[in-house]
Amino acid sequence: MVTSGFSFGVVFSRFGVGCTRQNMIFKSFDRLLQAHMDFLLMSALIFGLYAAKVPLPWHVRWSIVIGAFSNSSLFLLMSIFPVLLDAKSEVFAPEGLLPIFFKCYLFTSILVTTYGFGGAAWIIFRSTFKALPD
Fold this sequence. Notes:
Blueprint: H1 2-15, H2 20-25, H3 29-51, H4 58-80, H5 97-127
């Protein structure tokens, strides 16, 4: 459902199919497309982890899911608020509450996503060395 919403948003904002409100909300088509692709790739990674059939602890599973949604939402926020587009540059210093919130959200998202996917990768890697049943 979320992916369908992203798809329609990308198409409408790119081709301007009579949706001026859509273009008023999403200022950057590239960031909107990145949000869509990031959500699809994170979903594919989650399906791949499920296909490995290795049990993961609850905190790793929840970190994966929360990180997948928060990473996509970062690109969506950058699409809606163009002032956040240059957040990675060295001279990025806008003032206000939104840029501070965005920076905290960015680093929290990176930390949670890395913990989830890195922990899952480590657990799956370690499971390959366990003895196989006869």
